[in-house]
Amino acid sequence: MNAISKPTMSLVDAIFQRRSVRGFLPKTVPEETMRDVFEQAQQAPSNCNTQPWYTVVASGDLRDSLRDQFIGRAMAGTPSEPDFSYVSKFEGVYRGRQVDCAAALYGEMEIARDDKAGRSRAALRNFEFFDAPHVAFLCMDRSFGATIAVDVGIYAQTLMLAMTAQGISSCAMGSLRSHPDLVRTAFGLEENIGVVFGICFGYDDSEVKANNTRTSRVSLDETVVFKDH
Ligand SMILES: Cc1cc2nc3c(=O)[nH]c(=O)nc-3n(C[C@H](O)[C@H](O)[C@H](O)COP(=O)(O)O)c2cc1C
């Protein structure tokens, strides 16, 4: 076991305890802990061990500045310009699961389905990073497609589980791919670096209603086939 392996809970416990948190305390993650969890994520597998992820983490004044810029764009109605394409509309069973997910979240937030203003306010919370003290932007080369984005996804879940094991809460955020130019400018990134998605993280504020949200999963029969002849 090396110096960064400090198990605080079993892997299975981390898998089941991780959940998306959408309200954080104004308490920063110590730098050493932050380095540990990112080092653990770094052990994720990837195509030919290319480790195609490139992660930038904003804290402090930079995080505040990015929040203000994202909010400014949202308030101005600036169309999003993601680097990577996203499915425009979920259909069939996927749509059903999306609706269930929204119902669970808005139910806890006491926002009715027809409450457009309430929903807009809730959407804006994304761009406030749910008050998280840190926000990571997971990037990769813009020439990479879906197969390489898989590696970034594997890295992301490794990161979120490593955080869970350290008592750090997180929320993966596709919404933060909407204005990648802001991220490139903030970090002085080359134009070829694209933002795949964000992850905000910090410590769960248990007073925030959204944090009571619990999502379910469909049964294995719906997503896995085991066959031996
Ligand atoms: C790639 C990705 C992007 C996501 N984007 C957002 C987002 O922009 N805003 C948000 O509130 N939740 C976002 N989520 C969180 C999902 O809604 C959440 O993972 C899902 O409902 C399952 O709930 P759980 O994470 O609590 O298990 C995202 C999750 C993933 C994996």
From TrEMBL:
Q: Name one Pfam family in it.
A: Nitroreductase
Q: Which CDD domains match?
A: PnbA_NfnB-like (cd02136)
Domain Nitroreductase, chain residue ranges per copy: 15-203
Q: What is this protein called?
A: Oxidoreductase
Origin species, per record, is Marinobacter psychrophilus
Q: Does the keyword Flavoprotein apply?
A: yes
Q: Per UniProt, which keywords does this protein have?
A: Flavoprotein, FMN, Oxidoreductase
- What protein family is recorded? Belongs to the nitroreductase family.
Q: Which GO terms describe its molecular function?
A: oxidoreductase activity
Q: Which InterPro entries match?
A: Nitroreductase, Nitroreductase-like
Answer whether the UniProt record assigns the keyword Kinase to this protein.
no
| Residues of the signal peptide | none
What this protein needs as a cofactor is: FMN
Classification lineage: Bacteria, Pseudomonadati, Pseudomonadota, Gammaproteobacteria, Pseudomonadales
